[in-house]
Amino acid sequence: MKKTFSGIFALAVLASCNDSKSEKEITLNYPETKKVDTVTDYFGTEVKDPYRWLEDDRSEETEKWVKAQNEVTFDYLNSIPYKKELEERLSEIWNYEKIGAPFKEGDYTYFYKNDGLQNQYVVYRKKGDDGETETFLDPNKFSEDGTTSLAGLSFSKDGSKAAYAISEGGSDWRKVIVIDTENKERIEDTIQNVKFSGISWKGNEGFYYSSYEKPEGSELSAKTDQHRLFYHKLGTPQNEDQIIFGDSEAQKHRYVSGSVSEDDQFLFISARNSTSGGKLFMKELSKENSELVSILDHEDSDTYVIENEGSKLFIVTNLEAPNRKVVTVDAANPGPENWEDFIPETKNVLSPSTGGGYFFARYMVDAVSEVKQYDYKGELVREVELPGVGSAGGFGTKKENKELYYSFTNYVTPGTIYKYNIEEGTSEIYNKPNIKFNPEDYESKQVFYTSKDGTKVPMIITHKKGLELNGKNPTILYGYGGFNVSLTPSFNTANAIWMEQGGVYAVPNLRGGGEYGKEWHDAGIKLKKQNVFDDFIAAAEYLIEENYTSSDYLAIRGGSNGGLLVGATMTQRPDLMQVALPAVGVLDMLRYHTFTAGAGWAYDYGTSQDSKEMFEYLYNYSPIHNVEEGTEYPATLITTGDHDDRVVPAHSFKFAAELQEKQAGNNPTLIRIETKAGHGAGKPTSMIIEEYADIFGFTLYNMGFETLPNKTEENLKG
C-alpha cells in the first residue's frame, strides 16, 4: 500500500535567455511506513520511537521497506535528464592509472595499482630492481561483482609469508587468509570473524589480531563491547589461538590492538573504551612468559610507542601536551614519571613517523603540512622541502632503507608520489597520474570566518578560475567535525567533475576535528557539540555573504559523523540550503550506543543514559527527534549501505521515514540504500561512480538546472 506525498515537486528552470519558464512535474509516491507504539522513558521524559521496527535488519518487513524505497528513489534518479552524462564523464575522468608507493618485503618490491576503472586495486610485485612485474593479489577476482575487497595485508619478518584480510559486502567483519608468498598458495585454514584489527607478525612464526565474540542476533547490528587480542601460531587451528589480552572482566575494553616492534623485542597493547583515550601495556617477547607491564593505566590520553632502540622506547603522546610530543623512556621503568621530551610539543599538531634511521615530524599548520627530519638524538636535520601547499603523507619505511616514498596532494593537485633520499633530503617524482584534469584551470584558497561564539575557523574554497561571485554558483559545503579527524587538502576525482560544472567545493575545519589538537577536538564534544553545527552554519553564511552562492544553490554534505552534522544542520536551519546529503549518518542520538561498537563513540557524544542533562542535550539536536511537522526541509538524498555495521542503516531508515511523513514543502526526500555495501571502505569503483552520478545529478536538478551547468547559457533558477 502506498500513499501519495503531499503533492507535486515542480522544477522551474529558464529554458532560454528570456524570462519564460518551463515546468517539469514529478509526482513522488513514497512507500507506506507503518508506525508502532514504542515509547522509552528517559529520566521522566517519554520519547516515542514509531519506526523502531526498522532497526531489525534481518526482518522480511524491513527488507520489503528497503526494496520499496529503492524503487521510488531510483525511478526518480534515473529520470534526471543528465544523470547518464554525469556517469559517463565520471567514468572518463576516473579512467587513469593509479599507483601506490612501493614497499619492500623480503626479496620483492610490492605496490598497489588500479588500471583505471577496476573495482579494486591489484597488488603487484617484482624481484629486485630488474625483475619482471607479476600479479601478487587481485581482489577483483575475490567476487564476481567486486564487492569483496582487500582490507589489510601484512608480511612476516623475512617476507616469506603474508596474511591478508578480506571484507565481504563492505562489512567490518573480516576473514584472514595466510599464504606462502613464493608460490602464493594458502598454507592453512582461513581465520574467521576478525573485526577492528590489524595483523602484526612476530617473526615468521605467527601474528597477533583482534576480535569480538560473534554476537547473538544480527552480526550487522548487535552490540559488540569486549575486544580481545589473540596470537595465532602458524600451523595450528584458530580455536587454539592464545588470548593475550581482554578475556577477563578487568581487561574488558571495546577496542584492543597489538603491535610488535620492528626488532621483534616487544609487543605493545592498546586498550580503549572509546575512540579517544586509552591504556598502554607492553610484553617483552624476547623473554618467555614475560609479564604484562603497564606503561599507562588510565585513559586520559592518546599514547603509543612509535619506535625502540633496544630498551629505549620512543613514545608519542598528548598527555599534558594537546598538540602531541615524542618522549623517551627505558622499558625497565616506562611510567610517565620517567618520560623525557625528545621532540617537544609546539603550537602545531604533530604526526610523527620513522624510516631509514630518522624521525619525520609532520605538522599541521592551519590544516596544511610541514615536515621536519630529526635524528635519533632528537636534533633537527632539516625541514623537508615539499612540492607546494597541501597535504603530505607517508614518510615511513623500515630502518635499513635508504629511501622512502611520500604522497602530496591538495584540492586541485591529483595525488603524486615522490621518492625521497633520506640522507640527502632530496625529492624526485616517482609517479604523477595522467588524469584528464588541468589544475591550472582551478584555484584553491584558505579563508578564516567567524563562528557564532567568535571563534575563527579556517575553510578552503576551491573552484574554477574566473568564477563570478554572483550568488548563483552551485556549491557543496562538506564537513565532518568530530573524533579528532582532520580534513586536510586532498584531490578527489569526483569533486573535479563538480568543479568542472562550475561548482564550488568548500571544506571548513570545524571544531571537534583534530586540526588544532586535543583542545580543538574537545571544543566540539558532548555538551559542546552544538559548536560544530554552529561552525558549519557560519561557514554556509560566509559563502552566502561573500556571494559565492545563495541558499538556492547551496548543498551540505557529510558522512558518518558528518552525516550527523548534515542532519542536525538541516533540522536546525532548513532555510539555509537547497539540498542536504547525509551519508551513512549517526542520526538517532538516543540509541546510537546500543548498536555494534557505537558505545565507543561516547567520548565525543555522551549517551542518553549518562545523565538527565546529557539526555536533554542529545534530544535537543538528535536529527531523528527534531524533524517537525509542517516544516519545509531541503531536497534530501540520504545514502547508506545495507551491510554498514559501523553506523547501522537503521539511523538512515528512521530519518527518512520521519522526513517523508512530516515534510511540508514539495522538496523530495529520498533514501538510496546500496546493497552489498558497508560504511564505505572497499566499495567497488563502479558503485562509487554510480553513487556520485546520482548525488551530483540530484543536487543540480534540485538547484533548478535542466541541463548541466557548463552547457547552460543562463544558470538561473527563474
Automatic annotation (TrEMBL):
<dbReference type="InterPro" id="IPR001375">
    <property type="entry name" value="Peptidase_S9_cat"/>
</dbReference>
<feature type="domain" description="Peptidase S9A N-terminal">
    <location>
        <begin position="31"/>
        <end position="432"/>
    </location>
</feature>
<keyword id="KW-0720">Serine protease</keyword>
<keyword id="KW-0378">Hydrolase</keyword>
<dbReference type="Pfam" id="PF02897">
    <property type="entry name" value="Peptidase_S9_N"/>
</dbReference>
<comment type="similarity">
    <text>Belongs to the peptidase S9A family.</text>
</comment>
<dbReference type="InterPro" id="IPR029058">
    <property type="entry name" value="AB_hydrolase_fold"/>
</dbReference>
<dbReference type="InterPro" id="IPR002471">
    <property type="entry name" value="Pept_S9_AS"/>
</dbReference>
<dbReference type="InterPro" id="IPR002470">
    <property type="entry name" value="Peptidase_S9A"/>
</dbReference>
<dbReference type="InterPro" id="IPR023302">
    <property type="entry name" value="Pept_S9A_N"/>
</dbReference>
<dbReference type="Pfam" id="PF00326">
    <property type="entry name" value="Peptidase_S9"/>
</dbReference>
<protein>
    <recommendedName>
        <fullName>prolyl oligopeptidase</fullName>
        <ecNumber>3.4.21.26</ecNumber>
    </recommendedName>
</protein>
<feature type="domain" description="Peptidase S9 prolyl oligopeptidase catalytic">
    <location>
        <begin position="490"/>
        <end position="704"/>
    </location>
</feature>
<keyword id="KW-0645">Protease</keyword>
<dbReference type="InterPro" id="IPR051167">
    <property type="entry name" value="Prolyl_oligopep/macrocyclase"/>
</dbReference>
